[in-house]
Design a protein that fits this description.
By secondary structure, the chain is of the alpha/beta class. Helix content is about 35%, strand content about 20%. The protein has helices at about 25-35, 50-65, 80-90, 110-125, 140-160, 180-190, 195-205, 215-225, 230-250, 265-270, 275-285, 295-310, 325-330, 365-370, 435-445, 460-470, and strands at about 10-15, 40-45, 70-75, 95-100, 135-140, 165-170, 190-195, 255-260, 290, 315-320, 340-345, 360-365, 385-390, 395-400, 410-415, 425-430, 450-455, 475-480. The longest helix has 22 residues, at about 140-160. The mean pLDDT is about 95.
Length: about 500
């Protein structure tokens, strides 16, 4: 399914030039970058030397529809107008500088290596955000590569600043892990709309006999395949899917994109007549995450991953250890992991169908069946979960969280889902992350992260780190190698 709930990045590039350097140096170097780019980029024909130029150039790229910008120091650069671009342009700006080597070192020297230092200094003095790559000085081809890497970062930053998270219901009882101080959302520019489960139920009832229901049912049947769904539940689930999609469209308000964080138990299944997990998975596959258990920062984390990868993500419990017999039979000597590097990620059934093995099917939630339905009875309203093994894949496990003190913090860890049968229920997979045991103790436990983690199905830690850094997250934890102990790690162990 197409990711319709994320921004499309329209890049522009503006060259800047200090007036004591040849303006042609910046202009020509910028044009070579545009030629080297593997993506569409709007080439602003104004090279900025002063504030008047800056105003004209920003107006031009805005008129062209640009929502992300490359500011290129082709020479030393004018410190005031080049940094004011970031102030007056409505979108993320990347600052890069030209390497020498395309001319002599007398008339053809640009000193952009030096100018980048003053550019950064002035951005800081003005409290302006500018995205500066790890090594921001390069040839045309090298800067073209930097621009390619900037696109997913820009897409996530634009998405977050235009996001509304819609919630239904308070967190379930004893789920303090889904605590969500709103302060952190506002700091990121995210809006939140909190609703009652009754609001959702009223809207759901209004969608009874919606003429679009048969079409959604047919799509569900096609997606799952014969014998892998409950035909008698399809209309109810289709009605719910349309309820959420219509609510999202009607409640965007001033924002362009939406994510949900919904209360899915214990009252939901008995009231609506099914578990919402499969519907949640379908929305996630379209770029509209629906986080379980009113996990607002889980929804935010998922959305960031969708923007970066332009692909489906999921939200899982960091759930249980891998039994030794399973490790000995299926992992030891086959994969390069210690048993403490492994764990099982699980949720009731919210992972998109496209990320699961062929054994996936709509089933019932075993834990809720034990809790809510008569002992020994056939599952009824606890049906509706999408269950099966999650397919083997490289992954990035990550989360952005506002802690109980109101501080934003995050973690990122790359690893993989192993091609190992999980032998359990729910949407579940066997995960491996290098040094997970130490990461679990000295990041997840030590920094009091909740049990939910977002999963992107690729190695995108490089981009995730840059997004969190640009958003101003000071604490970005990761799975440190043994050679780099954590500050809380006992050196005598």
């Amino acid at each position: 399914m197409k990711m319709s709930n994320i921004p499309e990045v329209k890049l522009g590039i503006i060259a800047v030039s200090r007036d004591c350097f040849p303006i042609s140096l910046s202009t020509q170097r910028k044009n070579r970058i545009v030629e080297a780019c593997k993506c569409d980029i709007y080439n602003c024909d104004i090279t900025v030397e002063n504030e008047t130029d800056m105003e004209k150039a920003v107006a031009q790229v805005k008129e062209a529809g640009c929502n992300a910008l490359v500011v290129f120091l082709g020479n030393f650069g004018p410190e005031t107008p080049e940094t004011l671009i970031a102030k007056y342009f409505d979108g993320p700006c990347m600052f890069v500088a030209a390497a020498e080597g395309d001319g002599d070192l007398i008339d053809g020297r640009g000193d952009a290596y030096c100018g980048m230092l003053n550019c950064s200094y002035n951005l800081g003095m003005r409290h302006l955000k500018g995205y500066i790559p790890e090594y921001p000085v390069g040839t045309a081809e090298e800067i073209a590569d930097m621009i390619h890497d900037f696109i997913p970062v820009a897409r996530a930053v634009i998405g977050v600043s235009n996001l509304k998270i819609i919630t239904f219901g308070p967190r379930p009882q004893d789920f303090f892990a889904c605590n969500a101080p709103i302060k952190g959302l506002y700091e990121l520019g995210v809006e939140v709309e909190e609703n009652s489960e009754l609001d959702l139920y009223i809207s759901y009832k209004e969608h009874a006999n919606d003429p679009r229901i048969p079409e959604v049912c047919a799509d569900m049947e096609k997606e799952m395949g014969e014998g892998r769904y409950y035909p008698e539940l399809s209309e109810r689930m289709a009605q719910f899917e349309l309820t959420l999609l219509d609510w999202a469209e009607a409640h965007k308000g001033s924002k362009k994109y939406v994510a949900f964080a919904d209360k899915c138990w214990p009252a939901f299944p008995e009231t609506f007549g099914f578990e919402p997990c499969y519907v949640n998975s379908r929305l996630a596959s379209r770029g509209i995450p629906v986080a379980c258990e009113v996990d607002i920062y889980g929804a935010l984390s998922e959305y960031i991953g969708i923007c970066i990868t332009q692909d489906a993500v999921t939200l899982l419990d960091i759930n249980n250890s891998v039994p030794k017999y399973m490790y000995d039979e299926n992992i030891k000597g086959i994969y390069p992991y210690d048993i403490k590097d492994t764990f099982m990620g699980f949720h009731c059934g919210n992972t998109p169908e496209c990320k699961m093995c062929s054994d996936r099917a709509i089933k019932y939630q075993l834990i809720q069946h034990r809790l809510l339905e008569p002992e020994g009875s056939e599952p009824d309203f606890t049906r509706g979960t999408l269950e099966g093994d999650i397919a083997a894949s490289p992954i990035t496990f990550y989360r952005l969280q506002c802690d109980s003190d109101g501080e934003l913090r995050s973690y990122i860890a790359e690893g993989e889902i192993l091609d190992v049968p999980a032998r359990s229920f729910g949407g579940i997979g066997v995960f491996a992350i290098p040094e997970m045991g130490r990461f679990y103790r000295h990041v997840l436990i030590q920094k009091r992260y909740p049990h939910h983690g977002a999963v992107a199905f690729d190695h995108v830690g490089k981009y995730m780190f840059e997004v969190f850094k640009f958003l101003g997250i000071k604490d970005i934890a990761y799975n440190q190698p043994k050679s780099l102990p954590y500050s809380t790690e006992n050196p005598f162990n």
